[in-house]
Every structure is written in structure tokens, then in C-alpha cells.
Design goal:
By secondary structure, the protein is an alpha/beta fold. 43% of the residues lie in helices and 34% in strands. It has a six-stranded mixed β-sheet with strand order 1-2-3-4-5-6, with helices on both faces. A hairpin with a 2-residue loop joins strand 2 and strand 3. It is globular.
């Protein structure tokens, strides 16, 4: 993704996944996961999400999980609880996924998390991210 150069990301490598984390603009948080997300990867995502909310007062999440094959139950629980805790600070959460299992988990989490949008094409996901970055950069 040209919007997110790898050298600008915080990277967490675990035994089962690689997690990239970016903050391309105020209140914008982007994740990319390849492999099976485990508790260590989910902890990295949660830590940065909470930092964004603490520093910026809210968050728009963009989650490139197209290469995520699965995720462990503790990771799913941790991220769902975080979404519930952040509540109204969570402006919107965009996802792109390929795995049907991951998509089911997102659908379940949408019960406690408002503003969930699942994109079926990379072009749609990137367009939404680009628009959000431009909008938030202008208002910063």
C-alpha cells in the first residue's frame, strides 16, 4: 500500500504473525496483520489504539487484515474488550479481510463496536483511508 510505507510502521513480530502499526494523521490508526493474530500482536494493537485515543481524543481505525489467516481466542477477546472500553471514542473501524473466519469475528465484534465497515475491495479500503487522512490532516 503506497499510503503506508513499511519503514514508517511500528512492527511487532510474533511466533505466528507480523503486525504493522501506523498513525498517518491525528485520530487515524492503521493496522496490517499477516498470519494468525495472537495475544502478543493484539496487545501491540491495543497499546497503540489506547495511545491514539489518549493523545487525540478519538480514533478512526483502518485494519488491513487481508493477509490475516486466523486469530487466537485471547486476541479476539482482548480486541473486543478494547473496542467496548473505547466506546464513543471509536469514530469508525474499516476492515479489509479475505478469511471467512476473520470476517465472522469482525461481525461478532460489531455488536459492541459502532461504525464497523467491511470493504470487499482494496480500492475501496484505500480510498476510505486516503479520504480520512486528508480530512484529518486539514483539521489538525
Amino acid at each position: 500500500m503506497d499510503l503506508l510505507p513499511v519503514d514508517k510502521a511500528e512492527i511487532t513480530k510474533t511466533a505466528r504473525a507480523t503486525v504493522w502499526l501506523w498513525r498517518p494523521a491525528r485520530r487515524v490508526f492503521v493496522t496490517r496483520v499477516a498470519g494468525c493474530l495472537d495475544a502478543q500482536g493484539a496487545t501491540a494493537i491495543e497499546a497503540m489504539a489506547r495511545r491514539v485515543v489518549a493523545e487525540d481524543g478519538g480514533i478512526a481505525g483502518f485494519h488491513d487484515w487481508e493477509e490475516m489467516t486466523d486469530y487466537e481466542s485471547p486476541a479476539r477477546t482482548r480486541l473486543t474488550e478494547m473496542a467496548r472500553d473505547l466506546g464513543k471514542s471509536n469514530d469508525v473501524a474499516h476492515f479489509i479481510v479475505r478469511s471467512k473466519l476473520v470476517a465472522l469475528g469482525i461481525q461478532a465484534a460489531s455488536v459492541v463496536m459502532a461504525g464497523v465497515r467491511v470493504h470487499h475491495t482494496r480500492a475501496g479500503f484505500e480510498a476510505a483511508l486516503r479520504e480520512c487522512i486528508q480530512q484529518r490532516s486539514r483539521t489538525a
